[in-house]
Amino acid sequence: MLKASLHVHVQGDHDDYILYTGFELLDRAAALGFEVIAFTCHERVINTPELQEHACDLGIILIPGIELNLGGHVLVLNACPKAQTLKTLDDLRVYRKERPEIFSIAAHPFYPKRKFCFQEKLLPNLDAFDAIEHSWFYSRLMDWNPKAKRIANAHNLPYIATSDIHLLEQLENGHILINSDKNLESVLEAMRENQFVSVSKPQGVFQMWWVFGKMLWTGITQYFPWTPPHLVFEHETLPSDHQTTSSIESKTDRFSRRLRPKDSNRHSHHS
Predict the structure, then answer these.
(1) CA 67 to CA 76: how far, in whole Å?
(2) CB-side exposure of 1: number of CA atoms within 13 Å?
(3) Which of 77-86, 239-248, 254-263 has the largest mean confidence?
(4) Residue 259 falls in which region: left (phi positive, over 0), alpha (psi -120 to 50) or beta
(5) CA distances in angstroms from 244 to 21, 24, 61, 238, listed in the order given
(6) CA dihedral sign of residues 167, 169, 175, 49
(7) Residues 18-72: pLDDT tens digits?
(8) Percent of the chain with pLDDT over 70
(9) What does the DSSP 8-state code read for residue 134?
(10) Is the pLDDT score of 226 beyond 60?
(11) C-alpha dihedral, 204 to 206 to 211 to 212, nearest 10°
(12) Residue 30: C-alpha distances to residues 47, 100, 113, 131, 181 (Å)
């Protein structure tokens, strides 16, 4: 059984301020016994040769993915950069026909914030999804998951536990154990066939909101002058120690450097 976390945000996310790098996430995941990880940053596919090599060295299958807002949040696993251009569910349907190897998950569909959740739009659009998410954010007293579970069961769709990770401490809040050979094609096929077990448990109400509050606080800290800048990149190659470099370099210096013409050395190599 392969331990898998399929809703993971890392530094470079378009919308959320994340303090840890993809390298640090992979290191923590390996220490906890994960063998499959999907990076699903908002609006951006984060996938570099260096990240893939690091994952391979750790014995982890790293799935390139993305979290899109298409009238509600949807996770697209095994995505290519073209996924960043999708704007509607109809765009996703076309993309699914072009790339049948992708795997799409309706994320937290019945949570209260309509801007990010499909809610009543889920049922009429089930053909756009391969699975429905079982969100980690619930307690015995407060839970928006049951309706999603009923729909998944009624339509024989996989119901997949995730952690929607924004903090390293969230890694084991929800995951699945997949009965599959250890390769990407087998993993995705096993998920389609419901050959997995979801592992999730209710949070304490205080614990649930404490973690959520820490996520919000982390977002606020991006405006402090001593914290690393909100690194947003388009498939640029980053060294594994770039978090350290970012921490040392001031926000002003980094912003000024980004405004300068692209690396002159890069041009000289082409000349």
Answers:
(1) 6
(2) 11
(3) 77-86
(4) alpha
(5) 10, 11, 25, 12
(6) positive
(7) 989 999 999 999 999 999 999 999 999 999 899 999 999 999 999 999 999 999 9
(8) 85
(9) E
(10) yes
(11) 110
(12) 18, 29, 33, 25, 18
Which tokens is 28 given?
Answer: 């923590």
pLDDT digits (tens, 9 = 90+) for 128-141: 999 999 999 999 99
pLDDT over 50 at 257, yes or no: no
Beta strands in the chain (DSSP E): 2-8, 36-39, 61-69, 73-77, 103-106, 131-134, 159-161, 174-178, 196-200
Domains of the chain are 2-220 (3.20.20.140)
Q: Is the dihedral of CA 120, 123, 127, 130 positive or negative?
A: positive
Give CA–CA dist 68/81, Å, rounded. 12
Contact status, residue 71 vs residue 106, Cβ threshold 8 Å = no
Return the pLDDT at 232.
56
The two tokens of residue 117 are 């959740």
